[in-house]
Amino acid sequence: MIHKLPNPGAPPAEQIGFDQFLAVDIRVGTVVGLEPFPEARKPSLKLRIDFGSDIGMKKS
Predict the structure, then answer these.
(1) Which residue of 6, 25, 27, 28 has the smallest Cβ count within 10 Å?
(2) Between 6 and 31, residue with greater pLDDT
(3) How large is the greatest C-alpha to C-alpha distance in the chain, in angstroms?
């Protein structure tokens, strides 16, 4: 796995207000499948994630 350190010369990310934060849709799912993705430019994995009955199964 490759870890990149933050660029100390980069400008800080823009901050959002609390109301904007509340508008963000954050979901939690269960990874139910994982497989290599050799066609990708960089080493990658394909994920299958179950988000429950409201959203269902999604692939990355």
Answers:
(1) 25
(2) 31
(3) 44
Is position 42 within any domain?
Answer: yes
Domain that holds residue 54: 31-60
Q: How many structural domains is the chain composed of?
A: 1
Q: Is residue 47 part of a domain?
A: yes
Copy the structure tokens of residue 53. Answer: 């009955």
Q: How far apart are CA 14 and CA 5, in angstroms?
A: 19
pTM of the model as a whole: 0.59
